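Summary for the lay section of the report: proteins are chains of building blocks that fold into shapes. Here we show the chain for 3-oxoacid CoA-transferase subunit A and then a coded description of the shape we predicted for it.
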Amino acid sequence: MIEKKFESAVQAVSDMQDGATLLVGGFGGSGLPSHLVAALAEQGAKDLTVVSNNIGAVSDGVAALISNNQVSKIICSFPVGPHADDLVERLQKGTIELEIVPQGTLAERIRAGGAGIPAFYTPTGAHTELGEGKETREFNGRLHLLEQAIVGDYAFIKASKADRWGNLVYRKTMRNFNPVMATAAKITIAEVNEIVKIGEIDPEEIVTPSVFVQRLVQVEAHEEGKVLVHE
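The coded shape description reads as follows.
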């Protein structure tokens, strides 16, 4: 097994092509791979389909890609927030497509994609506008929607620690959409605060095994006052 470390976030995203589907981990600012997102904004790939829990909670998240005219479709649960004005403007102009997905359904669609399950039924969203046009089926007297799995060409995720093979450990709320997204992309790029030698991570601590991670980028945890921030 080879080492997967890249020298920089810019190098790690350099081969991304126009039209790619990108999964971006994080919940608000927690677990957000902001260095990778910034590198992609610099790289400039366009016509992206971006899957993320939210886009507007922090300025260095998916909102930055939208403002940079790199996104043609966004699939998310929470499209509002202090940095969502650019999304609203583009929706009004018809230059971007928005698909809102209930949060649990979004997580399960990604998990299904990683597990090789093409679709599943869920009662969430039935009898609402979110269910319009979707195939339905009744189970035990309750209407269910057929939801399609989500897979990506790339996934940007954030972890606290990795070894050089790409086994990942997350810190607290950093463990949100990141683990499921790691399984559901052809190329998963992990932004981590620390890379250690093989064998230094207790196997019981590993959440994402290295088989799901193709590239690693180490970034510095930053300080706010005297608190070292890893999320």
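Put simply, here is one thing we learned. Residues 223-231 have pLDDT under 50 and may be disordered.
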